[in-house]
Amino acid sequence: MARIAIIGAGMAALGALAVFNHHGHQVELFEKSRGTGGRMASKRGQSASWDMGAQFMKANTPAFAAILADWHQQGLIEPWKITPWLIDEDDARPSPDDDIRYVAVPRMTALSRTLAEKASALHTSTRITALHRHDQHWTLESETGDLFDGFDAVVVTTPPAQAEPFVRNSVNLQQACLQSSMLPCWALLLAFDEPLATPFDAAFVHTGAISWLARNNSKPGRDSGETWVVLANHEWSQNCIDHTRPWVEQQLLQAFWNTTGLDALKARESWLHRWLYAFPDNSADTRGYQLDPQQKLVLCGDWLQSASIEGAWLSGQAAATALQAQLSNSRVTGANA
Ligand SMILES: Cc1cc2nc3c(=O)[nH]c(=O)nc-3n(C[C@H](O)[C@H](O)[C@H](O)COP(=O)(O)OP(=O)(O)OC[C@H]3O[C@@H](n4cnc5c(N)ncnc54)[C@H](O)[C@@H]3O)c2cc1C
């Protein structure tokens, strides 16, 4: 059995955790936020809650389809039965497809919370700031100066800019970080006292500032009040990255009413979130991970596979499988020495 530290508690981390658990390792998760899920996050307001990151998950591969089927059977996720609309400069129209879109119930973070229970320890509100390696073992240092030592291997699942400081002694891993970048996304969350009379529950938008609109309460298991999630497109988000929050909120609200064609109503509650590292700009390595076999240090995350929950999960699993092979090799070599 090895002791393994995973930095981050998003879907890449949880994909890796599942593989390590299968091999009987002892795994500790270190997460800077108060909860698990990373970009598969939910926001709880005073009178409402929303999925403010990933909106749904779907499978493009048989491997992830099997995972979704398993989570569905366990009651962790449910299909979100919608016909998405497409809104562009010309018109708004239904855009049916055969995709099965799943959501975690009763909110997206519920899935990660359940999956993280399989870790030996979950250290939330713990931002790791440095990694130290002595005598074949790793020590993690947090921003409060706490030290967590005795790990045989470390898995880094953060976006590349946050991962780079941890991998400066591994040329290939550092290169992967430096060659990758992420795009931002402004997200506006709205709650209303009455239902909005839109003909759709969710729409892909190809005009103006917005890229996605969804009636959050149309997802299974959600609270009943009228809630909407509005995601700005990457270009607009990038251009407005440093604008003031009131200005961004005002612009997105205006764009929301323009896009839906409804008369403006006063929102009962709203929340604006800036995702600085929302989506990978490029996928640097389609293997899904970068491993330093000598140091037993591995990088993974959606930015090394594809920009989705599926990409993150498969990346974490590929990284853990590669590290597991390395740990087994070391044991065989050690046993033969
Ligand atoms: C607005 C938005 C909408 C999206 N919509 C969809 C969708 O509908 N469907 C879909 O499939 N995908 C969607 N995605 C993409 C999907 O959310 C991501 O691809 C996936 O969640 C990434 O998982 P990850 O584990 O690779 O990274 P993350 O979820 O970012 O996990 C990394 C974790 O590391 C933590 N961390 C960072 N630095 C440190 C540190 N120093 N110490 C400790 N912890 C640290 C972070 O807090 C985070 O929890 C969306 C993303 C966004 C932002």
From TrEMBL:
Keywords: Signal
GO MF term list: oxidoreductase activity
Residue span, Amine oxidase domain: 108-323
Signal peptide stretch: 1-18
Record PANTHER family: FAD/NAD(P)-BINDING OXIDOREDUCTASE FAMILY PROTEIN, FAD_NAD(P)-BINDING OXIDOREDUCTASE FAMILY PROTEIN
Protein name (Swiss-Prot/TrEMBL): FAD-dependent oxidoreductase
Organism of derivation: Parathalassolituus penaei
